[in-house]
Amino acid sequence: MEKPDSILENIRKAKEGNQIAFSFLLDTFWNDVYGFQLLRTKNENDAEDITIRTFSKAFDRISTYDESYEFRTWLITISKNLHVDLIRKRKRSVLDEMDTHGDAVKKVLDETPSAEDQLITEQNLANLLQDIKKLKPHYQKVINLRYFNELSYAEIANELNEPVNNVKVKLLRAKKLLAKIIAEK
Predict the structure, then answer these.
(1) Under 8 Å CB-to-CB from 125, ≥6 apart: which residues?
(2) Which keywords annotate this record (predicted)?
(3) Cβ–Cβ under 8 Å, residues 50 and 37
(4) Are 55 and 65 in contact (CB under 8 A)?
């Protein structure tokens, strides 16, 4: 686990909109939130979806984070509430899926290429397409929409009927997974 100072420093940078800090927080806490949800939901897709929504909501509301609480605890609490919401939603049957937390979406990621973007861009296209096929379908789709259809985050959100922040978190996660696949070859 990272030193608490490093985490607090990245939280402060994230509050200022720093992309690398968001990426650091996602990397540091993804497994904690995903593991927690996997135990609760017993379903990989639900766990992943709730984890993406958790980071989306957390990044959207990072300015409200109170440093007197552990960041991990804050994320788990958001995650728990999202899971309860999901259960309620399913019990109410599938009404129109409403996004209750997203009109004023803050910029989570800026447009500058990350290290993962560089690695992805340098790959031979045929190899890259093979590597993309190793990702889960929803990650394949977001990568294809962003890099092959060259859609903006807003256009992807519209296409997938999802909040922009979910798209940003999903794309960040997809790029990390793809970069890992490429690096392991």
Answers:
(1) none
(2) Sigma factor, Transcription, Transcription regulation
(3) yes
(4) no
Q: Does the pTM of the predicted model rise above 0.70?
A: no
**pLDDT tens per residue across span 83-109:** 988 887 776 654 444 444 333 333 444
- The 8-class DSSP code of residue 105 comes to -
Domains and CATH numbers, the chain: 4-91 (1.10.1740.10), 115-183 (1.10.10.10)
Closest CA to 62 of 71, 53, 51: 71
Query: Amino acid identity of 141?
Result: K
**Cα–Cα distance, 74 to 80 (Å, whole number):** 10
Whether residue 129 is predicted with pLDDT greater than 90 in this model: the reply is no
In this structure, the chain runs to a length of 185
Torsion of CA 79, 173, 177, 16, to 10 degrees: -110
